[in-house]
Amino acid sequence: MGSKKIFRIVLAIIGGEIALIIFATIAQEVLFNGISYTTSSFSEIVFGGLATFIAAILAGAVARLIIHGKINLVPLGISVLITLEMTYLIVTGKTGDPIWFDILAGGSLIAGVWLGFNYPRFLSKDKTTSVESSSS
């Protein structure tokens, strides 16, 4: 793997993470004035969680647009950053929410990033795999 490709991977991870921070901040803080298990209503948790999941999908799509291809190191790198941040927030008690709530929130971010990163797969009309098309 060349240095240019490594640079693009790192750039896509950083760009995707920055997009996730911006989009999640809009989803949680701007639209809902913060989401918390202890202080938010049930509807705020549901709709705020949905908005945050959509933010993660958009961040994954941004990362895919930066890298211009399917290199799974990119969503994996973003997933590691999400896991590290959630672990830090849980261990230091900065969220004040139950651990299961934080883990579910982090898991939905990770799932959203992977979904958004793989968006071309869902938009493609041709559902055949590369193995099937290369054997024809």
Molecular structure report:
- The chain has helices at 3-30, 42-67, 73-92, 99-117, 119-123, 130-134.
- Helix 1 runs antiparallel to helix 2, helix 1 packs across helix 3 and helix 2 (42-67) runs parallel beside helix 4 (99-117).
- The protein is mainly alpha-helical.
- The two termini are 30 Å apart.
- It contains six helices and no strands.
- The model is unreliable at 129-136 (pLDDT under 50).
Please outline what is shown here.
The protein has six helices and no strands. The protein is mainly alpha-helical and 136 residues long. Helix 2 packs parallel to helix 4 and helix 3 runs antiparallel to helix 4.
- What is the helix tally? 6
Straight-line N-to-C gap = 30 Å
List how many beta strands DSSP finds.
0
Largest sheet: none
The secondary-structure class comes to mainly alpha
- Overall shape: it is globular
What's the helical proportion of residues?
over 70%
Strand content: under 5%
Order of helices and strands: HHHHHH
Spans of 5+ residues with little confidence (pLDDT < 50)? 129-136
- Mean pLDDT metric: 89
The Rg value, from CA coordinates, equals 17 Å
